[in-house]
Automatic annotation (TrEMBL):
SUPFAM superfamilies listed in its UniProt record: Outer membrane efflux proteins (OEP) (SSF56954)
Gene source species: Jeongeupia chitinilytica
Protein name per Swiss-Prot or TrEMBL: RND transporter
Location of the protein in the cell: Cell membrane
Record's signal peptide: 1-23
UniProt keyword Transmembrane present: yes
Biological classification of the source: Bacteria, Pseudomonadati, Pseudomonadota, Betaproteobacteria, Neisseriales
UniProt cross-references to Gene3D superfamilies, sorted A to Z: Outer membrane efflux proteins (OEP)
Pfam family name, one: OEP
Keyword hit for Membrane: yes
Entry similarity comment: Belongs to the outer membrane factor (OMF) (TC 1.B.17) family.
InterPro entries: MdtP/NodT-like, OMP_efflux
Topological type in the membrane: Lipid-anchor
Top-level taxon in the UniProt lineage: Bacteria
Amino acid sequence: MPKKMKALSIALSLSLLSGCAFFQPDTKAPQMPLPTSTQAQPDWISDAWWKQFADPTLDQLIEAARTNNQNLALASARVDQARAVLGINTAAQLPRVDLGAAGSRQKVSEKSTTAALGTYNDYQVAGVASWELDLWGKLANLSEAARRNYLGATYNRDGVELALYAEVAQTYFNLRALDAQLQIATDTVKSREETYALQTKRFKGGLISELDVRQSESELDIARAAVPDLVSSVARTEGALAVLIGSDPKTIIESTPARGRSIDQIDKAPAIPSGLPSDLMLRRPDIQSAEATLIGTRAQVEAARAAYFPTVSLTGLLGVQSVSFSNLFSGAAKTWSFAGNLAMPLFDGGLTAAQVDQARAVEQQALANYRLTVQQAFADVRGALISNAESTKKTKAQSDRVIALQRQYKLASLRYDNGYSSYLEVLDAERSLFDARLALVDAQLAEANTRVALYKAVGGGWRLPDKQS
């Protein structure tokens, strides 16, 4: 027994050495030149960034999407799958113990060397243990690769969640913008119907020519023609928003998403600084996912390299065996065995080398993807920062234009009523005002959406999970 305990102790010590395995992957992300910034994390960046728009309806839509969106459910299921794979690879590093029982009746050939046994029974109950000693870190690296894949799946789910919330917010803002434009078109139709009726009376009274009536009628038809397209756009956007928040088919058909603040009442949140800390962007879920994937492929390379070296495994059996069931659990029926096995490739036709090359190629793909993801992230932030600043200027300019055209329309109407100008001046001013009001809504929508795009570009305030090493 002491010899067996000594052998087991040696095996355990060798296995523990796998924690200091010969092949360990580099767990550091590649260094890339980043813009310098001394700025601390801005106050406007938070996990619940959508609350800065101060619209309770938007908050409710985001919460519904978190609970019911199927893309997010799919990403969460992939996290569960990756967690299970990690459990499988972790279990492979530990001893396996199985319990088996068997019973048989057998007749031995009279011509065999064991002919004296004749017909006999054989009963056996035994525990069988097996353990592959991870001397070169193959199993440890496979487990590390699975852990990194699990992290990558988790960060990917975070990225899906961030993109989902951004899409919900932008779709909701688009819906409110369409609502505003539909209201503008409807109000314009009503106003032009009144103008057309007035012009018809004036024509019948001989005060104006038929030309003025037909011009008024044409402008009325233009406004009427804008309404159906806007109604259709509203319906499509309502459907898109309903899908994003995970509404069931009955709700999609029979109900419409709730409305909150109008597009011109949406809070634009605090001012955005011109620069941001570089480490803030590196916390984006897509960058974290790309980094985890890269480190996982490095572990796969080390696991592939370990195949060049011997595989050492231990097996043991402890149980009872007897030809008589009544004696099966007696002391004399005890049986045991202990064995070690070593296997090492001598010639495999280049298989191991090809597998290592394949793993290295996958690593290079992951490295290129990581660098590309970082590059794209900083390009997104730069574009979002500039667009955010410029969209505010555009909204202000469009608002000033509407005010100016409202004054122009009023003056043109006065000149026409007093006989100083033709009706064309009124029509031109009215047409320009209608287009400008629609354009102002577009500018307000763009300003809200660029703010959402900026939140998305900086990662929405996502924090590094505690599980990240």
